[in-house]
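Field notebook, page 377. I keep forgetting to write these up properly, so this time I am using the form the group agreed on. The chain and the ligand, pyridoxal-5'-phosphate, are recorded exactly as supplied. Prediction of the bound pose follows.
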Amino acid sequence: MPGLQTKLVHGDDSVSRVSDVVAPINVTTTFKYSDDPSKYITADEITAEQAFLPDYYVYSRVSHPNSIRIEELFESILGRPAVVYNGGVPAFNALLYHIHPKRIFFDQCYHGCRGAADLLTRFGALEQHGISEEDLENLQAGDLIHIESPVNPEGTSFDLAYYAKRAHDKGAFLSVDSTFAPFPLQDPFEFGADIVMHSATKYFAGHSDLLAGILVVKDQKQKLQLLTDRIYLGTNIGNLEAYLLIRSLRTYELRIRQQSANAEKLVKFLSDNLSRFDTLESVSHSSLQTEPFVKRQLPNGYNPTFSIKLTSADAAKALPSKLKYFHHATSLGGVESLIEWRALSDSKAPKNLLRISTGVETVEDLIADFEQALSNQ
Ligand SMILES: *Cc1c(COP(=O)(O)O)cnc(C)c1O
C-alpha cells in the first residue's frame, strides 16, 4: 500500500485525460458529445453510474474533469466514496438533504452550519434539539446527531463513540464535522460516524484562497445519490477552485503534520507559562484534555486550531495587533498563522476568547511572538 503523501501526489493519475504532469485548469462549462451517434445515451436512459463516469462530461454543474479528479484523490486516500462541493456549508446542506432528518440534535458547532439548519427550521422542516442527556432521551429512528470534533472555536474534542452508540441504539444517524482534524489526524468512521463532512477551505486547501467542501460516505450508492442531488443543489466545486484544490492536496500531509506539531508546542508553551502572563486566563486544546478517548480519536497528532481566554474583553481585543506572525483574520487551516478576536465574527463567542490557527512557520518564531505580545499587555 502506498503511503499518504504518495497517494496525494498520484491518487488521481488513473483519471488524468492528458499527458500534462499538472492537472490543467478546465474553464469550459460544456463538453462536446461524441462524434459517433451510436454512443449517445439519452437523458431518460442514462444511469447515475454512467452520468458520473470519469470520461463522461456534459455540463460542469454535473461534473468536470477536476471535480472527478478530486473525488478520485479522496477515495484513494480515505478508501471511502467522497463527493466534493463548493464549500463546507454547501456540503452540510447536502448532508441534511441526504439524511433528511425531522430532528437534529446538536450543540456547539460552526455558526454557518447552525444557520443552514435554521433555514430548514424556518420552513418547518427541521426541529432542533441539544445533546444533553435529557435531550438524547428523546432520540427516535431517523433523527440526526451532528457533532463537530474538535469543536469550533475552542478546539476541544467530543467522544464520538459515545454519540455513535446513542444514535445507533435508537436507529438515528451520527454525522461528524471533522474540519478541525482531517485525516490522518482523525477518522470519525472508526468511532461510528455514518457520514463525515469537511470544509476543504481549511486544511485541505491550506492557502486561504478557495472555498470547497467534502462529504465522505460508506458506500457507492450513497455517493451516486449525493452526486445526483448536487446537480439540483447546484453546488459542484467551480473549475478554478478545483484546480487549486488539487494543487493544494499535493502537499497536504507535509502541511498538516507541521501545523499539528506547531500547535501542540505553542499550546504547551502557553499552558506551561499561564502564571507568567498576567492577562492569560486559560488555554483550550485537545492536547490538554485528559479523557482517554481524546488520544484514541487523535492518534496521529492534535488539531492545529485552539483557543485562549484572556482576563478581559479589552485584553483580548488588544492582543492580535501586538503579534507579528499571526494575521488578525477569521478562518483557519492556511499555511499562515491567524488569530481572531472571535467576537468579531461569532455572536455566541465569549468576548475574552481568541481563536488561533497555527500555520507552518518555524515554531520557535511563533512562540517568541506570543511571548513578546503577552509580556507587553
Ligand atoms: C469553515 C467551516 C465550515 C464552513 O465551511 P465553508 O467552506 O466556509 O463553507 C464548517 N465547519 C467548520 C468546522 C468550519 O471551520
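OBSERVATIONS:
- Residues 87-89, 110, 112-113, 148, 152, 177, 179-180, 199, 201-202, 211, 213 surround pyridoxal-5'-phosphate (CB under 6 Å).
- The CA atoms of residues 61 and 234 lie 6 Å apart.
FOLLOW-UP: compare against the apo run.
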